[in-house]
Design a protein that fits this description.
Elements: H1 6-14, H2 18-36, E1 39-49, H3 75-88, E2 92-97, H4 105-119, E3 122-126, H5 132-141, E4 145-147, H6 155-161, H7 172-182, E5 185-192, H8 199-212, E6 216-221, H9 249-262, H10 272-277, H11 282-288, E7 293-294, H12 301-304, H13 320-333, E8 337-338
Parallel strand pairs: 1-2, 1-7, 1-8, 2-3, 3-4, 4-5, 5-6
Length: 347
């Protein structure tokens, strides 16, 4: 068993020798198999709106991006996508958007009720820092999970890339604790390689995963967007070059593997961002190094090209049907099976 503490996690994060990393890959895969099995659960992602009131320095959905054509899907369009996910055999749909108050709380609650009653799917929401009363209403309507990344445990770095709304001071960890109190399965995560992120900070992030015991943990590489302040190099957090975490493929695999070791029962996706930086085998390698979830995109192509958090996203022009067939083949090719049912946290 690989011993892990702040120092050893940082040592693994700095390790680049593929031969020396083999034990990490092997143990992460063995722990994944022992605790969550060989099933890869597919969760249909529906990007229901690209409106956002926030000014996050890394995100193409920022309200400051005037080049982006905005959209909100209709209820019928959303339910059609959810129905298609059910027909494909997926056990969960994920309703994701920017922090968009044009998506009224009761409208989201109605969508949750409809999906639960008509399609018997688990519902995951990823809608940003909404008021506690909205979160409670959605849970009461039947929502099962909520995803909200804390992005980085470095408060100075977080403040530089994620300014609050005027007059608002919000602690994302407090929101995550409240979500757990409401009875949600709680998902969070971080970006890897944000300019200004040190190896020590990223090691702290991984220990945050362990201390909170998140039900789902999403980690993926920072991909610059030229329509954002961070992507244009307008924001700089002083950091020594040797301490800057790279936003590359290898680092992403290391974080997935270490996350699996500190949170053996968590659901960990092999993300679209990982598939974007390695289209040939990124998702598969993520699954072989600790991940057990994939989120195929159900969003109609006409909309998904406008949900541009970062440019060049993988599968941007593929239909949901094409994506489904491709993923099942890829999962089978690495000796894994597609999971049945909602695929919730096993406790």
């Amino acid at each position: 068993m690989i011993p892990l503490n702040l120092e050893t996690i940082e040592e693994w994060l700095r390790q680049t020798d593929e031969i020396r990393l083999e034990p990490l890959w092997a143990e992460a895969d063995a722990v994944r198999k022992a605790h969550v099995g060989d099933a890869v659960h597919l969760r249909g992602l529906i990007e229901i709106s690209n409106y956002c009131i926030r000014q996050c320095a890394y995100c193409g959905l920022s309200v400051t991006n005037t080049q982006l054509e905005r959209y909100r899907m209709t209820d019928d369009e959303i339910l059609d996508c959810a129905r298609q996910a059910r027909d494909f055999g997926y056990g969960t749909v994920v309703l994701q958007a920017g922090e968009d108050y044009g998506l009224e709380a009761e409208r989201i609650a109605g969508l949750v009720r409809a999906i639960k009653s008509q399609l018997s799917l688990a519902v995951t929401l990823s809608l940003g820092e909404r008021p506690y009363e909205d979160l409670a209403a959605w849970r009461k309507a039947g929502a099962d999970r909520y995803l909200l990344r804390f992005e980085t445990s470095d408060k100075e770095l977080y403040a530089s890339i994620h300014p609050p709304r005027p007059g608002q001071t919000v602690d994302r960890m407090a929101i995550l604790r409240h979500l757990r109190m409401l009875g949600y399965e709680v998902g969070s995560g971080v970006m890897i390689g944000i300019p200004g992120q040190s190896y020590r900070t990223l090691a702290h992030d991984i220990l945050h995963f362990e201390s909170f015991d998140f039900d789902m943990i999403g980690v993926g590489p920072y991909i610059p967007n030229p329509q954002t302040p961070l992507g244009r190099g307008e924001i700089a957090v002083p950091i020594a070059e040797e301490d800057q975490v790279p936003s590359d493929e290898l680092m992403t695999y290391k974080v997935i593997a270490l996350t699996r070791l500190v949170c053996p029962q968590a659901n960990i996706p092999s993300t679209t961002a990982l598939a974007t930086i390695n289209r040939e085998s990124g998702r598969e390698l993520g699954l072989m190094r600790g991940a057990n979830i994939v989120m195929p995109n159900m969003t109609p192509v006409a909309y998904r090209t406008r949900y541009e958090i970062y440019p060049g996203k993988a599968c941007i022009n593929e239909t949901a049907q094409a994506c489904q067939g491709c993923l099942k083949g890829r999962i089978s090719a690495i000796g894994r099976v597609v999971g049945d049912g909602p695929g919730g946290r096993i406790r």
